[in-house]
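User:
Hi there, any thoughts?
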Amino acid sequence: MSQERAILVAYDGSEIARRAVSWAIQLAKALGAKLYVLYVVNVPPEVRAFLTAGTILNEALKSGMKVLEQIKPDLDKEGVRYDLVVEIGDPGEKIVEFADKINADLIVMGHRGLSGIKKLLVGSVCDKVIKCSNRPVLVVK
């Protein structure tokens, strides 16, 4: 029995992420793959230790799910199989970890195109995923 194909798409509520979801939907339909839509609540490591339980953690997870709910109508309309997932942590790290966890065939994500000093100082989630993952990454601009 062959393993089900899986596509992971990172979503942050931005227009470019919405375009990435559109691409991922079309690919999932063409390949018969299940789509995993991941939103990562970006919490610095020094704050994460305080989020192990309680109201703050629950609120962070709820806010992430609200962001994912924005695209649920598009997913339902297209008839793809999907899961909406919220993680807490560094977005680049969590995307790579989750892709490994589900054995993703492909990671799809949008790229905002930071340039100059801003890119030098903060880098980009997309760059981190490309460097750290051993899985194919489709970057949507």
